[in-house]
Amino acid sequence: MRSGILLYGPPAAGKDTVTTALAALDARYVPFRRLKVGSGKSAGYRMGTAAQLADLEVSGDVIYRNERYGNVYVVDRPGLDKAFESGMVPVVHLGQVAGVEQVAALSGVRWVCVLLWCSRTSTAERSRRRGDTDTTARLAAWDATREDLASYPQAGWEVQVDTGAVTPQEAAQQIDAFVRSAAPQP
Q1: Which of 17, 33, 34, 13 is nearest to 25 (CA)?
Q2: Does residue 15 carry a pLDDT above 90?
Q3: Looking at residue 184, what is its pLDDT?
Q4: How far is CA 56 from CA 48, 62, 84, 147, in A?
Q5: Which terminal residue of the chain has fewer beta carbons within 10 Å of its beta carbon, N or C?
Q6: What are 7's strand-pairing partners?
Q7: Is this entry keyworded Transferase (predicted)?
Q8: How far is CA 18 from CA 1, 44, 57, 103, 148, in A?
Q9: 137-147: average pLDDT
């Protein structure tokens, strides 16, 4: 069975940083680059067009899509299939519980659901430090994530990490330890 990690959390909770630490810990961990239709930051995404998105929707290959910051972000079946090649463990970043639920429901994959959290103040500070020009929108997204989180049972998170209290390397070690303990034994 294939394995993957779903990292859920508000903006600036450390999803990119923890994913980098996971990849440094074990090369099997690879960031899943969601398809992004829109503008702005392109690093970490596969930039696409509205026509590509329409084709994915017609073929039933959109697993989850959301709109935020004036863009569309997509977890797609062909992208995930490619990410799973050669026994890799994709790390998918999500900011909505609906996304966690829809991706986790994908058959044939053992997903580890991880809640990365940080305070609203940390989101503001981190957003400013990394040079975001839309910190206000990211704080609104933090608020929406907090409300969204209330709809998901705490037991649904197999690993919970306060990124304001641990280093990215410690967070990666916690996640890796759980992934290894949850892996099917031969």
Answers
A1: 17
A2: yes
A3: 61
A4: 11, 6, 19, 30
A5: C
A6: 93, 114
A7: yes
A8: 24, 14, 31, 20, 22
A9: 91
What does the alpha-carbon distance between residue 9 and residue 16 come to, in Å, rounded to a whole number?
Answer: 11
Mutual angle of helices 120-129 and 135-149, in 10-degree steps: 150
Confidence band of 155 (pLDDT split at 50, 70, 90): low
Strands (E), the chain: 2-8, 29-31, 35-37, 46-48, 62-68, 71-76, 89-94, 109-117, 159-162
Tokens of 101: 């639920």
Residue 7 has pLDDT above 90, yes or no: yes
Give DSSP secondary structure letters for 7-25: EE-STTSSHHHHHHHHHHH
Mean pLDDT of the chain: 92
C-alpha 39, offset from chain centre: 19
| Separation between Cα atoms, residue 6 and residue 15, nearest integer Å | 10
pLDDT tops 60 at residue 185? no
Give the pLDDT confidence score for residue 63 in this predicted structure: 97
